[in-house]
Amino acid sequence: MRIYDSAFYAIIFFLAGDFLSGFGLKFSAIILIAALIVALFLITGFIKKNNKLFWFSFLSLFIAVGAFYYFAFESYQYKSARINFNQVINFQGVVVDDVDQNNSQKLTIKLQSPFSGKISVQTRPLPNFNYGDLIEFNGVIKEPSQDAGTYLLKDGILGVSQFPQTKLIATDKGNFIKAALLSFKEKIINIFQKILPDKQAAFLSGITLGERAEFSREFKDQMSQSGTTHLVALSGYNISILVIVVAGILSQIFYRRICFWLTLMVIIGFVLMTGAEASVVRAAIMGSIILLATQVNRVYSFRNIIAVAAFVMVLANPKVLVFDVGFQLSFMALLGIVYFLPVIKKVLKIDDDPGILSWKENLLATVSAQVFVAPFLISYFGNFSLLSLVANVLILCAVPLTMALGFITAGIGLLSLNLAIIFGWLINILLSYEISIIEIFGKFDFLRITSLSVWLAIIYYALLIGFIIYVEYYPTIFALVSFNTNTSNKK
């Protein structure tokens, strides 16, 4: 077996062990499952005298490695924390993440001595707190509920505190690089707000930076109803547009190698600035690997890049595979585009022409992604509209240009706000069009699926995978069936 194939399957088995652990299986049960799989490969290998199966028996041991890593990580999380629960206490902590501000403030706090660990604190809207603030609290820290606990533990948060008394002790106690990046993001958002109407500025901040704090409840509902919420969830789309804009500008100034390293630094800075959401981290890892492969003139495999991106993210946090919705939706959408889109083209005999304003490419990519994420959207949000395909096609033809102009305008606005206003007139036309589509389709309440059982989801994915394998790996049979069907139709 080739090295890159061995690496791919080792990662898949490792992720399987992590996945089983996240679903609550005990370590001993996972070890038993791994042993049974090892034995199955060994016995089958002896019977068929197939050395490849022997190698698979070894690689399947990574199921146990993945499980061990998950439980070791979880044990470290608990042992490294020191928190007094369910007591009225005085405690201090530093804000270690961007503040989620709405009707109240949600702070992620790293506790200071004599306590340790991370907690989530909800406070009143005023006074305003920022990243790096050292705050003194007086209140109760509670253990989160079972459902909320699994979600919060993914971010290393072990406790929650609701509306304690607060007192600002000091500022600028966070990482100075992250503080500078968050301040830079605020400057960009302020530029958008100065050159555009409120709703358009909020939407541009959403599609370029993933910022949703300024969205009204009505607009959030309209995006959910129209199936366009993903537009403001940072993804590979943002990274690809950013790379095109930045690399295009830098390539006119610097040599190829310097341009590569500067572009890579911009990607890393963008990830940190926007909060390192799972979807954008995945896109950044994949984009960086592709940039590196292009730089050194090496061929790359999308299959392996996807696997490596997932592996790196799970190494950083084993909880994301089971408990991070953004991680799941991001990878499922990507798998749909990479594996299902070519199948659609083959079955429907569609050429590679993207169509006017790339409508055909957008339609196929949207359908492919939506087909793969539909059960997750129904399960988590109870909301999947078939009309969302139409809404996305109408909007996505304008989004790449809007995002590119948004990044360019932000750069210009840092130099001259008056010059940025000129670009703002053009962006406003595009944003108004996109918002109108969201508002129109947000009014429709039919062709909507709101529930799906686990077994139906399993059957759905089994049929989907079977169809892809059938079309991709049995082309002769598929061609024969297609030929017979066409012949019957002609008759």
Quick gist of this model?
With 491 residues, the chain is an alpha+beta fold. It contains 20 helices and 9 strands. A hairpin with a 3-residue loop joins strand 2 and strand 3.
Architecture overview:
- The protein is α+β, with helices and mostly antiparallel strands and 491 residues long.
- The protein has 3 domains: 3-79, no CATH class; 88-174, OB fold (Dihydrolipoamide Acetyltransferase, E2P); 181-455, no CATH class.
- 66% of the residues lie in helices and 9% in strands.
- The protein has 20 helices and 9 strands.
- It has helices at residues 3-22, 27-48, 51-59, 62-79, 146-153, 176-195, 198-209, 217-226, 236-250, 256-273, 278-295, 302-316, 320-323, 325-348, 359-381, 388-396, 399-415, 417-441, 454-473, 475-490; strands spanning 88-95, 100-101, 105-111, 118-123, 134-140, 157-162, 165-170, 384-385, 448-449.
- The strands form 2 sheets. Strands 1, 2, 3, 4, 5, 6 and 7 form a 7-stranded mixed β-sheet that branches. Strands 8-9 form a two-stranded antiparallel ribbon.
- Strand 3 and strand 4 (118-123) form a beta hairpin.
- Helix 2 (27-48) packs antiparallel against helix 4 and helix 11 (278-295) crosses helix 12.
- It starts with a helix and ends with a helix.
